[in-house]
Write a structure and sequence with these properties.
It contains eight helices and no strands. It is mainly α and 191 residues long. The chain has one domain.
Amino acid sequence: MSDPVLFALAVVAILATPGPTNTLLATSGAAGGLRRSLPLVPAELAGYLIAIATIGFLVTPIVSNVPALTTVLQLSVAVNLAFLAAKLWRRGTAEFVGRRIVGPSDVFVTTLLNPKALIFATGVIPLHQPDSAGYVAAFCAAVVCISVGWIGVGVAIGRGTHLGLASSIVPRIGAAAIGIFAALLMVRALN
């Protein structure tokens, strides 16, 4: 996508859409607040950049020759999300207010396997054009702004719930949302 306006709109729309990474960011914001959640931002950015480069330069040429690999990749991502949902659900049984229950590694791996990276690598970021560095820089700025926004949403949710209720329901809502994403991805891969 070489039109800067369409590129910006696409990036913002895709990044702002609820998904596994955004669910983790909001859950962390609700549990630990803004300051404790900020280390998740570079983890998300690193996950996206590595995934986009890997997909754009290595995976796409291979998958085009072996279509069954797409199904295997989708199932792998779905299984990872299911494990993450179970882990987050179990964390919901512990008192978490003021603690970090989502770590940078959780966000990094989830983002690395996020299907949004495929969209960015194959249809949004013009990786193979001479001016791709500017698009990648703009993408990075958007990731930072939108991820801080999702953390802010979580902070607002955390402040809006009563502390007794928040200690178990916020991570469980996040776990349920990630579990739904896993199930949808699994159904898509098997159809």
